[in-house]
Amino acid sequence: MSNGGSINPLTAASPAGSAAPGPGQRPAERPALSPAPSPAERLGTLLARRPELFTLFLLLSLCAVVGSINPAFFQANTLFDIARASVVVGLFALGVFVILAAGGIDVSFTAIAALSMYSVSLLATKFFPTAPVVVVFALSALGGALLGLVNGWLVHAFKAPSLIVTIGTQYLFRGFLLSFVGTVWILTLPEPMDSFSKIALVEYTSAARGTKVILPAFVLILPAAALLTWWILNRTLMGRAVFAAGGSLAVAQRLGYDMRAVHLFIFAYAGALAGVAGMVHVCSNRLANPFDLVGTEIDVIAAVVLGGARITGGTGTVTGTLLGVLLVVVINNVLIMAGVPSTWQRVVVGAFILVAGAFFLVRRRT
Predict the structure, then answer these.
(1) Closest listed residue to residue 52, CA positions, set 362, 315, 346
(2) Rounded to whole angstroms, how far apart are CA atoms 325 and 250?
(3) Would you say 216 and 84 are in contact if contact means Cβ atoms under 8 Å apart?
(4) How far apart are CA 96 and CA 269, in angstroms?
(5) Where are the domains of the chain?
(6) Residue among 329, 228, 334, 330 at smallest CA distance from 276
(7) Which of 227, 246, 250, 360 is 20 to 30 A from 213, comparing alpha carbons?
(8) Please, which pLDDT band fits residue 336 given cuts at 50, 70 and 90?
(9) pTM for the complete prediction?
């Protein structure tokens, strides 16, 4: 029995609200702490959360191999060529990524680009040769968006697979171009369009060769489009609807998302980017060829998949898409510097897709 001022040492040593062990009782055992994850486990978790880091690893590895074999790879003219070649492919890829994120797929974007860019170039050459280049690009983007709306309306109205719809419209748009618009190359562009391709963002003269190396200003179109796409997908209600539709269409509908608006938006947006890409292609080449851009669909879709987007939708990032674009462009444009024949480029792209696809699949299952 304790006096008023005395303190029981057992009670004082016990945490608040817990009873001290009595005679013959064993102290309560503390729960065993789980072991800290190993570096390999932490790396695997990070890659599972950010699959574009694996794409970055592939890109850096490829650049290191090519650069070690041929140091000319790191020269400014080679890097500028990669930047130029990435613009059109990157604009296409951003549009395809938005559609893939919503659970669809589009293979008509090259036909949309060809029809938009050739029609606007023909219109500007014949009737509005002094039209500002901003107006020309806006008209091409508008034409692409209208053609994309056709895709979106068909997909939603007939509940048809977007692959089937866009295969059909690809032939439809290209056939309309060659049958009713024209098949003749436009070799002389209006002055504003021709001058636009000559605007230099960076320009210097190589001391070794004495040649002028130029990074054109139109390369800024790609990062501007990437920022806009990122903002739409990550900061707007439409972006949440796009990823919700890609995750589960039924769940997205139960959540109240308007699937008609989603389908119309994603295909119109991809069409607008295709129209801009087509006009960049015309200005950079300084001619309009209605037969151009055929067969680039596989490279674009490969870039998006290599960037970490699932073909079934619901995942992916703009950063990963751009890294996938750079990876494909490097493979298609500079492997010859490492002594790899151009006929092997497709083999390398296919091998990278298989490696990246297997890695992404394994990480999702673990």
Answers:
(1) 315
(2) 32
(3) yes
(4) 10
(5) 70-293
(6) 228
(7) 227
(8) confident
(9) 0.87
